Amino acid sequence: MTIDASTSIRSSHESVGLGTDQDNPLTNARSQLEAAARTLGFDHGMHQILANPRREMIVQIPLRLDNGGVEVFTGYRVQHNFSRGPAKGGLRYSPHVSLDEVRALAMWMTWKCTLLDVPYGGAKGGITIDPRQYSRGELERLTRRYTSEILPIIGPERDIPAPDIGTDEHTMAWMMDTFSVASGYTVPAVVTGKPVSVGGSLGRSSSTSKGVVHIALAALEHKGLNPARCTAAIQGFGKVGAGAAELLAKAGVRVVAVGDQYGAVYSSKGLNIRHLAEHAGRTGSVAGFAEAEPVPSEALLELNVDLLVPAAVEGVLNRMNARKVQAKVIVEGANGPTTADADAIFQEAGTLVVPDILANAGGVIVSYFEWVQGNQAYWWTEAEVDERLEHRMLAAWHNLLETQRKLGLTLRETATATAVDKVAKAHKIRGLYP
Ligand code: GLU
After folding, report:
1. Residue 83 pLDDT more than 70?
2. How far apart are CA 176 and CA 198, in angstroms?
3. How far is ligand 1, taken at its centre, from the CA of residue 313, in Å?
């Protein structure tokens, strides 16, 4: 593929400086990589190859508003690595999207895909926009223009986007349609997380939550806790948090607190998740739920519960609050919710942290199943998808525990080192060109 030099694609090996800001997710992602590189005894060259994205594209997206005006947004697609296969990762619409955030999320996708043995490298996309302020028509035009701008670098064999914060199956349908119109034929496998009616997989929409819950139940048991006697707090009531709350409650865990960006609610008896979901569906937030009492959002993370599931954004468990966290087990539904400082504090306190690259991998696993089904034009039943998902999640969990016992590291250090080692081996065996 030739890339027009006038586009903003750049190979970023020389352009990325090492961040220092603790709140920057890229600083966090890089410090995790650095620890793995040390464990694995990497030389400087291999560390640098993995610390920097392979390719980045920055696009300006002019959007025709419903009122006739025009607003311009910035969009990104970062492909961190594709040594083991096409790049893969979600597309985020949020006012907090920045290039460094997308870079960090893309790096985590590489480790996640590798750890779970799905044949992809990592990527991530984002547009800096608050999607709640725009109409459906505006979001469709934004998505189509963004897709057409990044067209040269995506495709079923190049890079396969999926939903993330602020995007959903409609976003994927518009991307698929835009890509297909440009190709002259329908290309379902260019995105995953599509509606089932246009080649999506059964079970994809609940897959991240299902994976989180398989791991959460296994982790509680590993800690000697009976899930039926455990309490949980969940931060985030979006695609991941709401599904996890429902499934944990179904498994007998008492979900006592749930929060979102507008507030948090608590009930010592356990929240009725179905009622809470109805309330949130009506009002747009868990705040104001009449069957529970309000608690400050920050307090949710510090409640005396057995299980804490951060299922919102990066950096919420950090040096400011980590010492106050009382949960015995933390299962990361979000990407990058724990900073390196907080990780050290949890290790000292004996808190079990199940890292994002395992805990929330259910989404990309079923994305992989969707891509396989699309490529073969042969669809599986929901039961088949669920069974294969559970098998992969639990096999990865047991492998991780076994490797951890050998290495004597934390679960995150073990998971990151395992994935980084596999990616480095792929680089070595392919060799350096030229
Ligand atoms: N956005 C999800 C994640 O962070 C899913 C990515 C995918 O399915 O490609 O893992």
Report:
1. yes
2. 9
3. 13
C-alpha 181 to ligand 1 mean position (Å): 24
Share of the chain above pLDDT 90, in %: 95
Tokens of 227: 């899930």
Residue 80 within a domain: yes
- Same domain? 291 vs 160: no
Q: Tens digit of pLDDT for each residue in 223-238? A: 999 999 999 999 999 9
User: For atom 8 of ligand 1, which residue has the closest CA?
Assistant: 364
pLDDT at res. 23: 80
Provide the pLDDT confidence category of residue 4 given band limits of 50, 70 and 90.
Answer: very low
Question: Do the beta carbons of residue 393 and residue 361 sit within 8 Å?
Answer: yes
CATH number of the domain to which 127 belongs:
3.40.50.10860
- Distances 187 to 78, 129, 146, 195, 377 between C-alpha atoms, Å: 22, 27, 17, 14, 11
Task: Retrieve residue 428's tokens.
Answer: 């070595």
251: its two tokens: 């498994």
Six token digits for residue 356? 């994002």
For residue 185, give the DSSP letter. Answer: S
- Would you state the torsion angle of the CA atoms of residues 209, 214, 215, 216, taken in this order, to the nearest 10 degrees? 80
Q: What is the mean pLDDT of the chain?
A: 94
The structural domain count of the chain equals 3
Protein residue with least CA distance to atom 4, ligand 1: 90
Asked whether the beta carbons of 160 and 189 are under 8 A apart, the reply is yes
The residues annotated as belonging to the active site are 124
